[in-house]
Task: structure prediction
Amino acid sequence: MILIIVGGIILILLLLIIIKAVTSKEDVQLEEPQEKIIHMSGIYSIVRKSPRADLVKLRPSEEKIRQYLAGQNEDIYNIALCDSERSALLKHWKEQMDVNLREVEIGDKTGVAFYYYDFPQACAACAPFLSKGHFVSREEIYNFPQLVPPFHLGCTCILAAYSGKVDQNPNDTVISGMRPFFTNVNVPALPEWTSTVTLPKAAEVSR
Result:
């Protein structure tokens, strides 16, 4: 009888040990994928991360821009700046940054691989650095968020999504002038944010 009781206790202990081992293994298997998840970008990413927060860290604060504009009496064309133009430049800076960031964020959801720079209006400050048709990949934007316009006060440059392959459809007028903005691993030179170009609509308001 005693042997039966002892045997039963041993059997119960063995069952408890086996259950505990199986449960621990399941916990480990559940935790492993979470530890491997990292912020990545692009079509094949596990987790996509907007460049918004990183870009905000790189760009001057609103207060810094206000202080800079307060000390500027004219733009790069030597045209006098008034208070309404200074306010319009700051408003345009914030609006354009949000527009271009949303273009990238929406593109992440739809699988956009490349973005090309476009200029609805000519931009003298950007002209020496980039032109319409220069393109960057989503990975390049993720690694270098400073590639997102605007690049300077009064910048008219925008990012346009292109979801096809850059080397296809040679007759496509959108991509006929497309070429990579990057020629090596280094970030190409960009305009200084302090390059001030008066916005046409701001000039019309004040004159």
